[in-house]
Design a protein that fits this description.
By secondary structure, the protein is mostly helical. It has two helices and no strands.
Length: 62
């Protein structure tokens, strides 16, 4: 039986590798979904321009 030695640096590299894979998949998914929604003209209220909401609220309080 061959036993392998993983020092802390190797372990951290492996953890970083898997974290990068997860982050890459999530960002790729969000980008694709956003592009598909923009093709069909679908927007969520959270994706609207937040500056317009703040400006409208400020104008109402003056």
């Amino acid at each position: 039986m061959i036993s392998l030695y993983f020092d802390p640096g190797t372990g951290a590299l492996i953890v970083q590798f898997f974290a990068a894979i997860v982050a890459g998949i999530l960002l790729f998914y969000r980008t694709i979904v956003y592009k598909i929604k923009s093709i069909f003209g679908i927007k969520n209220k959270l994706e609207d321009d937040f500056m317009n909401d703040e400006n409208n609220q400020e104008e109402g309080t003056k």
